Records
---
Amino acid sequence: MSNKEKMKELLERFKNGEVDENEMMKSLTVREQMPQRPYFRMTRSKAVALYGVRRDPIVLYRQQWLRLSKAFSGGKNCAFNRFFFNEEKKKKVVKEDKSSEVDEVLGEEQMEELK
């Protein structure tokens, strides 16, 4: 049964008195359907909006889209694939980053005191 048919049936039931106003409002839920394919549009402020990925559009200016596209270019060695699909290197980088952060925050003298 399509949404249109369900709406007609609900209106008929409301006209006949089978459903009161509150029940009718509860059963009416209008949901925006995501498009099958994401698409772009130009906004008034000359930014580019991407629709169809999530409920709200993703809006970036031209230069930001160009920088983002560079992250996806490069095949298997692109930044996107390195970040999401190379878990071993990702874990090593996280461990190295934590130790370097501690060094930067504490300083050499304070690190020696801790030892």
Note: Confidence is low (pLDDT under 50) at residues 100-104.
---
Amino acid sequence: MRLLDRVKADTNVALKARDRERVSALRLVSAELQKAHKEAVPSGADEVAVLRRERKRRLEASEAYRAAGRAELADGEEREAAVIDEYLPASLTDEELHAIVGDAVAESGASSPREMGKVMALAMARTDGRADGKRVSALVKEKLTA
């Protein structure tokens, strides 16, 4: 089942359960997925990228609301991000990420932080979007400065 079909089915279930907040979040996700399907050739990677982008937007909005003292709106954005999380593939564990970064450092032959770009390119390609770039970057920096 395509992700878009799954989101639509879950939207119907949430409608029947009268879960307004979940319906709202799923409709936003559904609209973004439909837009992505119209703009490009559909593939699983594209759908995951759309979900990650939307999740990131929700978390950034939540931070902005918190900074402005609007905790109730921030909580709503965080709940929407949690709904989106349900459709994302599982993130890499710390051990898996350490192994990937270690392999990337060894393969690239990098020995100083100046060569971080080479390592990042290899590591990000291997994570397939299952790890945040900031997390990978911090780990690469740690490995190259140690």
Note: The CA atoms of residues 32 and 38 lie 10 Å apart.
---
Amino acid sequence: MIPDSCIEVHTTPLDRPSVPVWFAEVVILARHLATTGLLEAFADQVHLRRGRFGTYETIDFLALLVGYAISGERTLSDFFECVAPFETAFMALFGRSSLPHRSRALVASWLMSIVLA
């Protein structure tokens, strides 16, 4: 080990989750979608049939779909557990404040209610 006076290591007994390895890929993709206008186009041109969606928008679905696909998690439930500590940062990449509810029924109903404008 090479000593370096510029490096300081701090430890704590508190349990802190580490950022998932796939998070950087989501950052890159979300940034690309935003800078090319594709994120805005998706939000404007894809609509959900209103029902019991509350404050959820199509962009919430896109964020969920992108994150789940890139994460490689086996199930949606596993994805939600993995992203939970970073939910605010994850959704901020897509201009939103929180992930949609974990309910499989809600996600399934989203899949069946997407319509192109």
Note: The CA atoms of residues 61 and 77 lie 15 Å apart.
